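Hi everyone, sorry if this is the wrong subforum. Our group has a chain we'd like a structural model of before ordering constructs, and none of us has done structure prediction before. Sequence below.
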Amino acid sequence: MRVLDSAPEEATPKPDGRPGSHRRWDVIAGVVYTALAVLVTSRLWAGPNGRVLAANEDDHGFFLFVLAHAERAVFHGEALFFTDRLNFPDGINMMANTSILALGVPVSPITHWFGPGVSMALLITVGLAGTAAAWYWVLGRHFVGHRSAAFVAGLWGGFAPTMISHANGHINFTVLILVPFLFWRVAKIREPGRPVRNGVLLGLLITAQVFVNEEILLFVALACAIFTVSWLLMHRDRIKTVWKPGLISLAVAAGTSGVLLAYPLFQQFLGRQHYRGLPFTPDVYVTDLASYVFYARQSIAGHTGLAESLSVSATEDNSFFGLPLVVVLVVCAVLTWRSKAMRAVVITGLVFVVIASGPTLVVGGKDTEVPMPLFFVSHLPLINLITTTRFTMVVVWACAFLLAFATDRVIENAHQEQAPATVRRRAVLWWVTVAVALLPVAPKPLITVPATPMPELITSGEWREFVPDGRSLVPVPLPEVTVGREGMRMAAFAALDAPVPRGYFMGPTNGEIDTTGTWNAPARRTSDILFEIVRSGTAPVITAADRAAAREDLKYWKAGALVLGERHAQAEILRTTVTDLLGREPVLVGGAWVWAVSDLPV
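Answer:
Right subforum, don't worry. Here is the predicted structure as tokens:
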């Protein structure tokens, strides 16, 4: 609190009443956060290369691919910001996708030696524990005086329902370790005497966060802007002393990050396969106001049916604080209201409650048609790239500060010399109340299911006999959003050694003709036929036009071989259909049906 309310200096840590308790709380925090993270990911660790997250198989497959891409960049020297190993031959703009290069590159040795599934399980585990530890470290050392208060904030910051829901496949929203550090360094830019140093450090953090997730960086920037305006309006007497070092630091931060990010951002917004906007409108994924008083499906007290009625998906349970915690947060606001900084935190949180509600207010699953502020700005650049309900993440961060500062205030009062017995009893009551409020939102292990086993043809590398250099490996069905998940895993577990057509990724609808963002490659007749088989489970009637289109599609994809795992759920229908389309029989090799087509002209 002193960092924001008083002169720009560090908070003076206090030993929670007993010598050595800082060290003790450090150990407690490390053990508890690690244990919780391992508990949450335990079912994934049971078979990281053979199990998938049941709530989000699509993104699970996508992140296996981006981890394999980072491995190829490190071990094979391929480009970081573009690849044609998926969506061949058009390729994918990796800067325009959540390629998590700041995470994938460091774990590339693990991906190389143990497989992308192990790297994914590791990143989710480290993301949860590391984010909690980051909140604990930053708040405990630089904002509050008692580590026990920071411990509570770390529990919430690392394991809030939004974190656990995104752990279902969204690595980019699970590894938020840099977020508390970004808030800390922004708070420091008003310090006189060190604006260049502060600006450089902030610029480096910004650069690193871009290569984890840009959406989160935008949330942090907007949160800091709203907080700063609120804080300055309540500290008009300090504007003269903070504006100069603040602006210098921001200019240095912009310059530092601008130089480091100039080329990557050019590739993202103007490079090959860039896109504009998202394939849905801002009113599709919004936060239901009623969801705040109920529990997420991955919380101990959660009810799947109720959560489904108030949330857009299992990976977007971004609110769901539960009524007891909402009441505790109101009490936190009252306890810390004397602090102008905490008033600004409360204002920031409430602003984002409103923004996350979307263009119109939704309550209890019903659109009230009451216009909200986002209605007027949702078309603006950058804002139109945001999934609206994710603005709730800023509310979660504001609550972490509230819990830390309110708990610190209660502990401080209880630790005053000769504190009345009633004050000490209130402190005990506070801890019990916080525990009762947080326990129902405690996370359950992520649900996983066995993935369709990868054919030995892929895992052994035997596929190379059928795919010459310059030709692609075509999974059957081709990888698409919601179907063809085996194809995404096939590409990842083949280490992207062979290019694969199509895929699940973000790209332009139709090259330079229509750059609107979409999750699919431009439609082709053969992939549509196979897609429909998986969707409906019925065999189509193949015509001469379909066979001619298949030849053209194989030529476009420069196909070397089509591969169908014999354990695919629709293997028989798919095998019959592809045989009819190609007019040639497959061979069964290593648990997969293979149609060798490298003899066809390209």
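For your construct planning: The chain has two domains: 2-49+115-441, 456-596. The chain has 23 helices and twelve strands.
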